[in-house]
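The methods section describes the discrete structure representation at length, but only in general terms. The central task, working out the structure tokens from the amino acid sequence alone, is never made concrete. Nothing conveys this as quickly as seeing an actual entry. For illustration, here is how one protein appears when written out as sequence plus structure tokens:
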Amino acid sequence: MSGITTHVLDTALGRPAEGVAVRLEKKDGEAWVALSASKTDVDGRCRDLAPEAAAGVYRLTFATSDYFNAMGRKSIYPEIVVTFTTS
């Protein structure tokens, strides 16, 4: 087993995206089970989502609209979801 982490960059500003809310879920049959939630740190990282993760299908949901709204910017993406498989 290994951990699940993420790193978010604000490419428009050329720096890490601090304060982005991130949710981690794991697929269980046809349902998604919430495992953890966090916010990116000053380096744009969430290191504490799942220190150890078994093989399976996971998804990360990034609250991009909230991040941009807090900065007075607009986004066409209310959230971004990345689904992936670990083995």
